[in-house]
Amino acid sequence: MASVWRARHRDFPTPVAVKFIPSDLEKGEDGHERLLREGRILARIDSPRVVRLLAIHDEAPRPFLVLEELRGEVLATFAKTRGQVPVRVTSRLIRGVGAAVEEVHAAGVVHGDLKPTNVFLTRVLQGAQHGLTVKLLDFGVSRSVEERPLESDRYPAGTPDYMSPEQVLSPLDPRTSWDIWALAVLAYHLLTGAAPFDAHSLVSTFLRASSAACLPPSCLRPDLSPRVDAVFARAFRRDPERRFRTVLDLVRALVDALGHCHDAPVVASSGVRLRNAFTPTL
Length: 282
Ligand SMILES: Nc1ncnc2c1ncn2[C@@H]1O[C@H](COP(=O)(O)OP(=O)(O)O)[C@@H](O)[C@H]1O
Ligand SMILES: [Mg+2]
What we know:
About 35% of the residues lie in helices and about 15% in strands. By secondary structure, it is an alpha+beta fold.
């Protein structure tokens, strides 16, 4: 885990974000090598949907990355304040995150740690209105075809709730299926407020993900149709060959299924019906 600070940098006129590994977290592992690899991977991805790298400072004793400073909030905060995110909003968010992940894959990179704290929502002015745009961050466990594996890549790295069985079993064989699985977990989480294979540890989550079907999301949220259940049943098949093959395939199927659902009206405790005033333009 890294430390990220807002900072002033002599070479840049506006504030930047600085990312480094705090000394108490180094633990003699290859943390610095990982951080520098994160920088090199970011340098290879030129996309407005990915946090922009401004500089890599490979300086002993503490290398650091200089990143554009993002303003807004992480998707985790956004989702937490909303509980179950409205269907149309989820659809737009998944399209935005999906487009970002597609660009990452096109650059020969597997993100490996897609989750709500690694997705940033920034506000942008579009015409007269403010919209939200997605930026992916945290390429700390990402893998690239251009990079040789590090010693610690032999062990599973990522976030248990979001890791596919093959990411846990074969950490030396990065695949786009890792991110496609994680994107499905993220969508499930946004829609239901719960993780599909929530358990106490990497091992128990892995056992659930590889041996049991997830609870159909319509059981947790009746306004979701059986079509949505079918998308998640396919996304979480044990065999990656029987899942969606690309990010785009998953996004298309999910957006289509969500298009057949209607958000249940939100009713305030006073009994007054609330409009969903929030419409991100992604
Ligand atoms: N460029 C940035 N601008 C603003 N906030 C950032 C930026 N990069 C990271 N953060 C914040 O710092 C948190 C941790 O950064 P992250 O790169 O995810 O490192 P890690 O999860 O490995 O500690 C993010 O969840 C986000 O809240
Ligand atoms: Mg992170």
